Amino acid sequence: MFTLSGGHVFPLYDAAVKGGQPMRLVDVRHEQTAVFAAEATARLTRTPGLAVVTAGPGVTNSVSAVTTAWLNGSPMVVLGGRAPDYRWGAGSLQEIDHPPLLAPVTKRAWTEHETANLARSVDEAFRLAMTPHRGPVFLDISLEAIYGQAEADLPTADLPPAGPPDPAAASRSPPLQATSLP
Asked: Looking at 28-37, 45-54, 63-72, 158-167, which range is the least confident one?
């Protein structure tokens, strides 16, 4: 998990180190670096990279790196913190509606508001990142959902196999435009 520590996503750090199989946390100094590192991991391993960013500027700082992953077809999941639902519209700390910013450069960008649905949404994000045409997925998690407690059925951990590149997927990639200098 590549990240820059932030209060909106702190429970993810606890879960990463206290779970049955601890996850390595790599703390960076800028959110863009976290997402570029997750994208590099995805390209090298052909499995989804993971970046976690806090709300507001944490998410907006990640957009350039997410765009690079989109253009490269790199399977990646970016989890973002979000201001609390109960105070939405009141100018809470780092309150920005992130999914509309990320939607043009991700396979899907949405917000999870319910604690009980969080495991299913994260699983969906990883599965979607790996389905052809591979690419980044953004999941915004409201403060209530990430700090809440609920009973939930955990999905199975098997992802679609990485396999060799799909030549047909390349034709579905966003077109690259060549330019020349005068």
From this structure: 158-167
H/E run at residue 12:
helix 10-18
Q: Which domain holds residue 113?
A: 2-152
Q: What's the pTM?
A: 0.83
Helix (H) or strand (E) holding 76: strand 76-82
Confidence of residue 152 (pLDDT cuts 50, 70, 90): confident
Dihedral sign, CA of 147, 152, 155, 157?
A: positive
Judge residue 172's burial from the number of C-beta atoms within 10 Å of its C-beta, 0-12 exposed, 13-18 middle, 19 or more buried. Answer: exposed
CATH number at residue 51: 3.40.50.970
